[in-house]
Structures are given as structure tokens and as C-alpha cells.
């Protein structure tokens, strides 16, 4: 069969809260079994060493820590619904998310895809406790229970469209689920498959059953293939793997833990007992799996056995394996069972074994068997071609084949054949698109600031703990840690700097707020291209040295200019030649830098919606707007600079702190002086004959107006430019120009070009016309850009824009500076990209990294909050770790995760104020339907997106409002649905509809339905 890759793993087992800890536990041969937690059941009530009827013979088992903790806010599940959910649903939901992240996929990117979900499960003790408590069965209790919901819950919250089913074949459930997922992938029913297994022991029922059936080990420990084997010890846990067809995984460059070569499932039919193992069926399923995988038994280096530690079960399994492997004289197959470390995890046993085998192949070492030192002589393992590992087995290079068995108590058997992952793919070919900005951008998203802070620390700890390559690490964060409202991004040049930035941000709320505020809306980006005067020797030289991407586009501009300049503009810039201040070189050099920066950002996925260039800066803007081709713009700029350089000396420019209109009287008698630029309400530049400028300057200064001579070689944008116009027009006519495809805010027109071509007449006029920067910038600002990105060798325009008078402008757009000055390098460009990402831009991250760094790198999975706890018979909700026996009554409480100050604000910020009875009725009804505390509900909370309401909850909300408010009974759900975007919207709608508190004759829901009031008191 076609191989299937395991590309993502997450798990949580006794003594092992995550995948890394699980592997560590296995390699240490550690024991995850311990006393039954007080949270589960009173062992003194159900324990008897003699195993009396209705009693269990053990007080121990394998239990995971904190199974009651659930981050319901992350999944937008209301506290009331979370409290009703089987903990197995909660554990699987979080595990599935983390496994997808481990596969290098942002979980939200799977939304709407043909991704299948296959869950193995055999325990349903939560349902036994809650669905038989008829007085407390609610809609949430119904959807919170049932095998089908364990898979459907994942598909629903991740919006997955592939097959979704739960499998119960007892102990083989999750390996059978994997078998079904593999077949679905090969049949192309789905393109990704999430396979999970889960087991949580809530009651002693199965422990009693095992005891009464003679299957329970008194010490609660499985001892597979050991002389001390004396029965099953119960275990629990959750695990999820992500599967893909191997060809698809390799094509996407995903990490592959291991490959599934073949699987098989059968049933032993009518054997010597419904719950008894059957050797013949087991050996047949082994043979079927080997055949489907295309391997010989002798190819299998090790097998993860079912290995429960019961005398009969171990004997049957050894004989079934021996049927295929007995001839392996001199090289017996290694045999083990993770149940020796964890106990029998029942519905999760198959996934526990699958993950162990995948990790063993990935790390190329098989952990020792915990009870190998006391191997059972009766099993005669060597005669069957088998051996237990007393020490870890190092696997040689090359392909390694392994087996995995999981046998169900009712007779459904499964076996899988796995193989080590193929050799790592070679580095990208030399022809891969160049990229790299000279630094890395690490990104992280979360639903709220507290979650972001928690995950920043988790990432910092992980990076600090081991040496990792920064580029692949950051790129993986860009691809995986995405999709939530709060966007964090920071630039770094090494991992030490990254760790410091992550921790500093987590520890400083103000800094974190600046680096992660949710985007206000869809970003609208404007590029501002700096004009003459910003140039300096070696401008952007450090960026050129560090950023292959910028280097590519500056080289491109240089190649376009070279035929017209006769000398490399790039080399002139990089060598620090002072000739850059000469007009013939200044203009093409600025054009090259502006073009290269603009193309660098567009290649990074930053798409401008509007463009503005100051004087010569308009040429780069025209190229990006596709009004001029690169070679045409290069020729024009080179000709413009050369022609101006040929003009005689004697011209100058004067900056005046005054409005243009106020200077008219001084300009009128001076025909050789004109207004070169209007950069602001009181920022005007005059240009022309030096002698005339001196006369004007002296007169203006006498009036107390500030002036400043500019260091320029010629009087640009003045009447002194007229001698070059005819020759320039000839060149411009040959090049032409078209209507820009992006909005260009022209500094010739002082507004956006409206269907007007940037053609020869435009560029000729451009030479002598006043630069109407202030007017053009005002028009651009009126279009409400969210970000102004200045592209030039140093910031000039940003300060001019900030000084513009904008009544009712609000906070204004963010200013982004990819280059901040002479020493700017890759870090500043990376910081600019980080700022744009925080503002809502979705960059093309691959362009930010060289081809060799475009590889997947594992990141710690999402760190869920453990603050809220849901447990006990009536769905207790508490804060912090559970301690002691659960209270018999339903108690629900949680301190808000936000600060006390913000919680207080939200509590007081009620629609209409605290005395508003309609608002109070709505808030109370929403609180009761969702199970929220008062401080957790505010007018701006969205019912669906923030509070997790669904159609069932909306109906209940309507019923509660009818019981509390007069004038609501005539409203239908259809009337309400359009008005349910937020709590405040609902309040406003009810007021408009005439809702009011009931009159004296109306007693409210506490009299009409006492159960409501009792629920309020206890829930």
C-alpha cells in the first residue's frame, strides 16, 4: 500500500504531561502508576484486598494530572457547556490542536478542508454519572456526552469537513481508528487525518470488573511478559497523531516522525470466550499487516506488543508472534509494551503504542522494557524468536521496520507495520527564489493578553533550553502560531536576543500591549518615497550586506540604470563615494534605493494601497504602480539627473517657516525664484537665483520669520530648470507612461491621480512644478491609511506628515521605517515587517528567509490555561488545582484572568448603567445561560465569538428573557438573530422593542419556574 506519514504528535499520559516528557519517561524506564487521586473516588469505600464482590483489589493505577483543567475560553465554549462536557472531549480537543501545531500547521488553516477525525474510545463514565441524573439533564449535558461527540467536537471547533467518527473496539479502539484513517487517506476521502485515543477513569467500575474477572493486578501495574505478571493495572491518557500521505508530506517539507507501511484489522469470531484472546486470530492479523506492508516478518526489528501482563494474554500473544518469527535464530525480534510504564490505557492503548513506536523510529532508539529483568521463563521467548530489551536498543542507519499490536477484549484485533522516515530532503536547489532580510521575525498569536503572556514564556523557556537555529525557528512560528486576535511579533538576530525579548515582553504589560494590540481592521498601507536631500554615502550599505532580498532588487535597479549612467550606482553607494551628493548621481541613487525597498516589501507580501513620492521619489512610486517600466524609469531618472547637473551654478534653495500665500509679496518682483515645495502649512521651500534668494531671505528674516539655506547644487523646481525641459521631453516622449494601476497621490497635482497618465508631459511638468507634498499628503491621509511606510535612506517624510494639521484625525496612521538612518541593517527591516504584521498584514514569510532556512522546525505546542476546572457529578467549576474530594453540590467560580482593574471596568460598564433593569435582565440571563460570573460579561462581548453561544443557547436565552421582561413574548428567534452581535446590541434592540420589567402582577421566573432560581444559586 502507499505509505502514510505521521507528521504531528501530542500526548498526555501518567507521569508525562507532553510528548517530550513521554519519551523521557520511556527512556528512563519510569513508572507512571500511583495512588488513585482523591478527586476520582473514595478508595476506602471500594477496595478489598480479597477482591470481594463490588470491590476492587487495588488502590493504584496510572492517572494523568489535572484532567479537570480546561481552557474553555480558547475554544469559545461557555463555562456551562464546558462543565457538562465529558473530560475526554476536553482532553481530545486540546490534544488535537497541539498535534496539528506539532505537524507544522496552523490549526485554523485546516478550517474547511477535508480533514478526517478518528477517535478511539471505550470508556463513557461521565455519561453514566450525568445522563442518569435525570433532573439535571440539559442540552449541554446531551452534547457533552457520547462517543460520537469526542470526534465531532474536534471537527466542529476546527471546522473540519472530512469523515468524523469514534471507534469502540475496547482495548484496540485507537489503533483501529488509525487503520480506518489510513484507509481513508489512501481512498482520498481526506487529505489530513487526526487520529486520537483517550481514556479517563472517573469511577471504579472497570477496576471492579477486572477484579471480579480475575484480571486485576493487586499493585495496579501491568508487568508484560514478566515472571511477576499478575494482571492488568488501569491507566489513562490522551494522544493524537496527524497523518498524511507520505508524498504530500514530503512535497510540503513536513517533518515525518515515521511511516505507516500497512495496517490490518480482524475479529476472532466465536472463540473460547467473548473476552478471551485468540492466538489464531492474532497471528492472522499480523500476517495480513505484513502482507499489506510488503515486508517479511524477518524485516521487523522490534514490535510494540499489546502486552497487558495477564498470564493468558501474554502467552497467546507470544505464540502468535512466534508463528511468524520463531525462525529468527541468532537475531530475535525485540519486544516491549508501554503498559509496563503507564498501565493499560484501554481506549487510548493503541495510540500510546503508536506514539511510542513513532518516537522510537524518530529517535532511532527503542526504550528498554520496564520488567525485562524478570522475564517469564514459561513464555520461552527465545524459542519464539523474541527478546525483551533490558537496555535501550540503538537502531542502525537506514530503513527500520517495526510492528505494533493492539487487541480488543471483545476480539477485534489490529496490527500496524511502521518504518523509519525516509532520509531528510536535500537543501532547496540553487535555483530557489532568493530571500532573507538579515534578521528573523518571531511571531505568536493568542486570544487574549494573558494567553499571549503564558505562551511567550513557554516559548522562551523552550528556546533557552536548547540550541536551535533562529531562522527555521522563526519561520515555523510565522507559519504555525497564527490565527488569533492578539498578534505578537519581534525581530531578533540570534536566539539569545529572542529569549530576552520574549521574557521582557511577557513581564512588561505596557510593552506587551504595544507589541501585540489586535489590529483595528483591515490594513491600508501607503508607501512614501523620500526625495532629494535624504542621500548620504553608503546609504543602505549595511542592509545590502545582510539582506539577500534587498540585495537582489538593488542589483536589479543598478542593472537598469547602468546603460544610462555609465557607472554602477550600486558600487558608488556601497563604497561611500561623496559623488552621491552630485545631482547626476543623487537622483538615480535615490531611485535605486526607493525601488529596491519598495520591491523588497512587496516581495514580502506587503501590498501598498496608495503611493506618494516626494519629487524624484515619484519615479519609484510610478514603477510600483506600473505606470512606468523599470528600464524606462531608470532612463528618465538618469537623464533628469545628468541634464540638471549640466546646468550652470548660481542657483539655490531656501527653506522658510511660513505659509506659501504669505510669501507671495516677496516673490512677485523676483521672476527667477519660485516655490519649489510646500511641505506643510508653514513649511515652504523657495528655489531660484542665488542673488534673488539672498534678497528675499534678508527681507523675510527682518520680519522675524525663520529661514534656512539648503545645501544643494542647483535650484530644483524653479524657473532655472527651463533650459533642460526640451531635451528631457525628447527622452520622455520615447518612454511614454500610462495611468497608474495603484492610487498615486501626485505631488505635481497635490491630489490622487484620477485616470491621468504619468506620461511624457507629466514628467516634463514634474521638473519645474512646485512639489505639493502637503496637499498630496493631506489627500492621502483623508483616505485613512493605517500604516505609512517611508522608503528611503533615512526618514524625512514621516516627520513632515506628523506636523500636518489634521482636525478630527484621531490617533492617525502608524509610521513604519524599514530604514532608520545610516547604520540601518536587517534588524530595522525585520522590525518594520513585525510592525506591519502586528497591524494585520499577512506577509509572505518565505521571502524573509534564505532558501536554506525554509525548513520546518518543531515549536512547543500551545500552552493552554489550567485556571478553570470542571469536575464532579454536577459539573463543578472551580479555580486552580483541585484538592480533596469534589463537593457534592454544583459550585461554579472563577476569578477573571484579566487584571482586577479591567475586571472592575467591565463589571461597571453595563448598558444603561447599573440601575437599568433591561440591561440587568439581559446580563443576568446571558450569565445564567452561559454559566458566567458577573465580572465576565460586558456590553461589548459578542454572543457567538466571545461567549460561545449557539442555537440551543439562544433559544434558552429567549425563554429566560420572556420570563424576566414584559413585551418580549411576541419576539421570535428570527427577530433576535440579526440583533445578537453583542450583549449591548441585544439590550438596545429590546429597549426599542418595548421590553420592560414586569408589572406587580408578573412574578418573574423565580415564581413560575423555581428550578431556574435554584440553578442560579448553585450553578
Automatic annotation (TrEMBL):
Domain (Ketosynthase family 3 (KS3)): residue spans on this chain: 1-420
Single GO MF descriptor: phosphopantetheine binding
Pfam families with a match to the protein in the record: Acyl_transf_1, KAsynt_C_assoc, ketoacyl-synt, Ketoacyl-synt_C, PP-binding
Span list, region Disordered: 881-902, 993-1019
Highest taxon in the source lineage: Bacteria
Protein name (database record): Polyketide synthase
Organism: Streptomyces shenzhenensis
Listed Basic and acidic residues bias regions: 1002-1019
Keywords (A to Z) from UniProt: Antibiotic biosynthesis, Phosphopantetheine, Phosphoprotein, Transferase
Transmembrane residue ranges: none
Statement: the UniProt record of this protein carries the keyword Phosphoprotein: yes
PANTHER family, alphabetized: FATTY ACID SYNTHASE, SI:DKEY-61P9.11
InterPro entries: Ac_transferase_dom_sf, ACP-like_sf, Acyl_transferase_dom, Acyl_Trfase/lysoPLipase, Ketoacyl_synth_C, Ketoacyl_synth_N, Malonyl_transacylase_ACP-bd, PKS_assoc
Keyword Phosphoprotein (UniProt): yes
Positions of the Carrier domain: 913-994
Gene Ontology BP terms: fatty acid biosynthetic process; macrolide biosynthetic process
Amino acid at each position: 500500500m502507499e505509505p502514510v506519514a505521521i507528521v504531528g504528535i501530542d500526548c498526555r499520559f501518567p507521569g508525562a504531561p507532553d510528548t517530550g516528557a513521554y519519551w523521557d519517561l520511556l527512556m528512563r524506564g519510569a513508572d507512571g502508576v500511583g495512588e488513585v487521586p482523591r478527586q476520582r473516588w473514595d478508595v476506602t469505600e471500594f477496595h478489598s484486598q480479597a477482591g470481594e464482590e463490588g470491590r476492587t483489589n487495588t488502590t493504584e493505577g496510572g492517572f494523568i494530572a489535572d484532567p479537570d483543567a480546561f481552557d474553555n475560553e480558547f475554544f469559545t465554549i461557555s463555562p456551562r457547556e464546558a462543565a457538562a462536557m465529558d473530560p475526554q472531549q476536553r482532553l481530545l480537543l486540546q490534544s488535537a490542536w497541539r498535534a496539528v501545531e506539532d505537524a507544522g500547521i496552523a490549526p485554523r488553516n485546516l478550517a474547511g478542508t477535508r480533514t478526517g477525525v478518528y477517535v478511539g474510545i471505550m470508556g463513557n463514565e461521565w455519561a453514566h454519572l450525568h445522563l442518569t441524573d435525570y433532573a439535571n439533564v440539559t442540552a449541554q449535558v446531551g452534547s457533552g456526552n457520547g462517543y460520537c461527540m469526542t470526534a465531532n467536537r474536534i471537527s466542529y471547533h476546527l471546522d473540519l469537513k472530512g469523515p468524523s467518527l469514534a471507534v469502540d473496539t475496547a482495548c484496540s479502539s485507537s489503533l483501529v481508528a488509525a487503520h480506518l484513517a489510513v484507509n481513508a487517506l489512501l481512498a482520498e476521502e481526506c487529505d489530513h487525518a487526526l487520529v486520537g485515543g483517550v481514556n479517563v477513569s472517573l469511577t471504579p467500575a472497570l477496576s471492579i470488573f477486572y477484579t471480579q474477572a480475575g484480571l486485576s493486578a493487586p499493585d495496579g501495574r501491568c508487568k508484560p511478559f514478566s515472571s511477576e505478571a499478575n494482571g492488568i493495572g488501569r491507566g489513562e491518557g490522551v494522544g493524537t497523531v496527524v497523518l498524511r500521505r507520505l508524498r504530500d508530506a514530503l512535497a510540503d517539507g513536513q517533518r515525518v516522525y515515521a511511516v505507516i507501511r500497512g495496517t490490518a484489522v480482524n475479529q476472532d469470531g466465536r472463540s473460547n470466550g467473548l473476552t478471551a484472546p485468540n492466538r489464531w486470530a492474532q497471528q492472522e492479523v499480523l500476517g495480513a499487516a505484513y502482507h499489506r506492508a510488503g515486508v517479511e516478518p524477518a524485516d521487523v526489528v522490534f514490535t510494540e506488543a499489546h502486552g497487558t501482563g495477564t498470564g493468558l494474554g501474554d502467552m497467546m500473544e507470544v505464540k502468535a508472534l512466534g508463528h511468524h518469527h520463531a525462525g529468527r535464530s541468532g537475531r530475535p525480534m525485540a519486544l516491549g509494551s508501554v503498559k509496563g510504564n503507564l498501565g493499560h490505557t484501554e481506549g487510548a492503548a493503541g495510540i500510546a503504542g503508536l506514539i511510542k513506536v513513532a518516537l522510537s523510529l524518530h529517535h532511532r532508539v527503542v526504550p528498554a522494557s520496564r520488567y525485562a529483568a524478570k522475564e517469564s521463563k514459561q513464555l520461552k521467548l527465545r524459542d519464539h524468536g523474541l527478546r525483551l530489551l533490558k537496555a535501550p536498543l540503538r537502531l542502525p542507519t537506514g530503513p527500520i521496520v517495526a510492528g505494533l499490536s493492539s487487541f480488543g477484549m471483545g476480539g477485534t484485533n489490529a496490527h500496524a507495520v511502521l518504518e523509519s522516515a525516509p532520509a531528510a530532503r536535500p537543501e532547496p536547489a540553487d535555483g530557489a527564489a532568493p530571500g532573507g532580510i538579515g534578521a528573523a521575525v518571531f511571531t505568536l498569536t493568542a486570544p487574549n493578553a494573558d494567553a499571549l503572556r503564558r505562551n511567550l514564556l513557554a516559548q522562551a523557556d523552550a528556546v533557552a533550553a536548547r540550541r536551535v537555529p533562529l531562522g527555521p525557528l522563526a519561520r515555523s512560528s510565522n507559519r504555525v502560531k497564527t490565527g488569533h486576535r492578539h498578534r505578537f511579533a519581534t525581530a531578533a538576530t540570534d536566539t539569545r536576543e529572542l529569549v530576552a525579548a520574549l521574557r521582557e515582553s511577557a513581564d512588561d504589560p505596557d510593552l506587551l500591549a504595544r507589541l501585540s494590540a489586535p489590529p483595528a481592521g483591515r490594513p491600508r498601507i501607503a508607501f512614501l518615497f523620500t526625495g532629494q536631500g535624504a542621500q548620504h554615502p553608503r546609504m543602505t550599505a549595511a542592509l545590502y550586506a545582510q539582506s539577500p532580498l534587498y540585495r537582489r532588487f538593488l542589483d536589479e535597479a543598478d542593472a537598469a540604470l547602468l546603460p544610462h549612467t555609465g557607472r554602477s550606482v550600486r558600487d558608488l553607494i556601497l563604497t561611500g563615494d561623496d559623488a552621491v551628493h552630485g545631482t547626476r548621481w543623487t537622483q538615480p541613487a535615490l531611485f535605486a534605493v526607493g525601488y529596491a525597498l519598495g520591491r523588497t516589501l512587496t516581495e514580502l507580501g506587503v501590498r501598498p494601497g496608495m503611493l506618494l513620492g516626494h519629487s524624484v521619489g515619484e519615479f519609484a512610486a510610478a514603477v510600483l504602480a506600473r505606470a512606468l517600466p523599470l528600464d524606462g524609469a531608470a532612463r528618465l531618472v538618469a537623464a533628469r539627473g545628468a541634464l540638471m547637473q549640466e546646468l550652470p551654478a548660481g542657483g539655490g534653495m531656501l527653506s522658510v517657516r511660513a505659509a506659501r500665500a504669505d510669501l507671495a509679496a516677496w516673490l512677485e518682483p523676483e521672476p527667477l525664484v519660485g516655490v519649489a515645495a510646500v511641505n506643510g502649512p508653514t513649511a515652504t521651500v523657495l528655489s531660484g537665483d542665488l542673488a534673488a534668494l539672498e534678497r528675499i531671505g534678508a527681507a523675510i528674516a527682518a520680519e522675524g520669520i525663520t529661514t534656512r539655506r539648503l545645501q544643494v547644487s542647483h535650484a530644483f523646481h524653479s524657473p532655472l530648470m527651463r533650459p533642460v525641459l526640451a531635451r528631457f521631453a525628447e527622452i520622455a516622449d520615447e518612454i511614454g507612461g500610462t495611468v497608474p494601476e495603484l492610487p498615486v497621490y501626485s505631488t505635481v497635482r497635490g491630489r490622487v491621480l484620477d485616470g491621468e497618465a504619468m506620461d511624457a508631459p507629466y514628467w516634463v511638468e514634474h521638473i519645474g512644478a512646485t512639489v505639493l507634498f502637503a496637499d498630496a499628503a493631506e489627500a492621502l491621509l483623508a483616505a485613512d491609511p493605517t500604516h505609512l511606510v517611508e522608503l528611503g535612506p533615512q526618514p524625512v517624510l514621516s516627520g513632515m506628515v506628523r506636523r500636518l494639521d489634521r482636525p478630527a484625525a484621531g490617533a492617525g496612521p502608524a509610521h513604519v521605517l524599514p530604514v532608520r538612518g545610516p547604520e540601518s541593517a536587517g534588524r530595522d527591516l525585520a522590525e518594520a515587517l513585525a510592525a506591519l504584521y502586528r497591524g494585520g498584514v499577512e506577509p509572505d514569510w518565505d521571502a524573509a528567509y534564505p532558501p536554506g532556512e525554509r525548513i520546518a522546525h518543531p515549536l512547543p505546542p500551545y500552552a493552554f490555561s489550567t485556571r478553570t476546572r470542571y469536575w464532579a457529578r454536577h459539573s463543578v467549576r472551580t479555580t486552580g488545582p483541585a484538592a480533596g474530594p469534589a463537593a457534592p453540590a454544583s459550585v461554579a467560580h472563577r476569578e477573571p484572568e484579566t487584571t482586577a482593574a479591567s475586571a472592575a471596568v467591565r463589571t461597571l460598564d453595563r448598558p444603561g448603567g447599573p440601575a437599568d433593569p433591561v440591561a440587568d435582565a439581559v446580563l443576568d440571563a446571558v450569565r445564567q445561560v452561559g454559566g458566567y460570573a458577573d465580572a465576565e460579561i460586558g456590553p461589548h462581548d459578542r454572543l457567538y465569538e466571545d461567549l460561545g453561544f449557539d442555537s440551543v443557547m439562544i433559544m434558552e436565552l429567549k425563554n429566560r428573557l420572556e420570563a424576566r421582561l414584559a413585551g418580549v413574548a411576541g419576539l421570535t428567534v428570527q427577530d433576535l438573530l440579526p440583533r445578537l452581535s453583542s450583549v449591548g446590541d441585544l439590550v438596545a434592540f429590546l429597549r426599542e422593542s418595548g421590553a420592560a420589567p414586569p408589572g406587580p402582577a408578573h412574578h418573574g421566573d423565580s415564581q413560575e419556574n423555581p428550578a431556574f432560581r435554584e440553578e442560579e444559586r448553585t450553578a
